[in-house]
Structure formats: C-alpha cells, structure tokens
Design goal:
By secondary structure, the chain is mainly alpha-helical. The chain contains four helices and three strands, in the order E-H-E-H-H-E-H. The chain has a three-stranded antiparallel sheet. It comes from Streptomyces nanshensis.
Length: 118
C-alpha cells in the first residue's frame, strides 16, 4: 500500500466513484455494451461521477469501454457507475452489434463462380 503522502496527484480510489459498490447491479453489461442517454432525465441529483458519465453519453451513444477511456477509470468501475444510471433510467443499455457470422466457404465459392459467369 502506498503511504498517504506518496500517492499520485489526481489518483482516485476505485470505490470512490461507485459509492462503495463493488459489483455492477446488471450482469449483462460488458465493455462493449452501448450506452444511450435519456435526454429528458434531470442530472441535478447525480453524483459527480454519474454526471461525468452522462456528459459523455448525452451527445451520442458510446460503449462502456469508450466512457471508461474518456474518464480514465477502470472498466469495472465504469460498469458499476453505468449500471446505477441504467437502474435510474438515465441510461439505456444495448448489447453491441454481434459479429458477422462465418459463411460457408463452399457457398462463397459457388457465388463467386456464378458472378464470373455473368
């Protein structure tokens, strides 16, 4: 443990932004989850870290990883803060767009042959 006098300036303990909560209330959130802000929800009752998350999400949807990078917070901490905002209705979470499915190589070869015959 670093002695109090030797901590880096600006260093925030991980439990500070989450209000002491260690686990996100929503297990479905991961770093690729898309966060969409509800433009009509009031921000005055939010903690400073919740407010900062909302400031980044209000202009447009962002992933938890992007918000985490902007805030310079660990992903796990950002997930806890984002989960509390989803619970309160300030944010809507969406699963990321799934990766494209692998196509059958034989099908693609037949398709290519057909295109060449045109």
């Amino acid at each position: 443990m670093t002695p109090p006098g030797r901590r880096r300036a600006g260093m925030v303990r991980p439990y500070t932004p989450t209000g002491g909560q260690a686990i996100a209330s929503r297990a479905s959130l991961d770093l690729a989850t898309i966060l969409i802000a509800d433009q009509d929800r009031p921000l005055h009752a939010l903690s400073s870290h919740q407010h900062r998350v909302m400031e980044h999400c209000l202009p447009g949807p962002l992933s938890i990883a992007e918000v985490s990078a902007h805030l310079q917070l660990p992903g796990a901490v950002t997930k806890v803060v984002a989960a509390s905002l989803v619970d309160s209705g300030h944010l809507i979470s969406r699963a990321p767009v799934p990766a494209a499915q692998q196509h059958d190589k034989e099908f693609l070869e037949r398709l290519l042959d057909g295109l060449r015959k045109l």
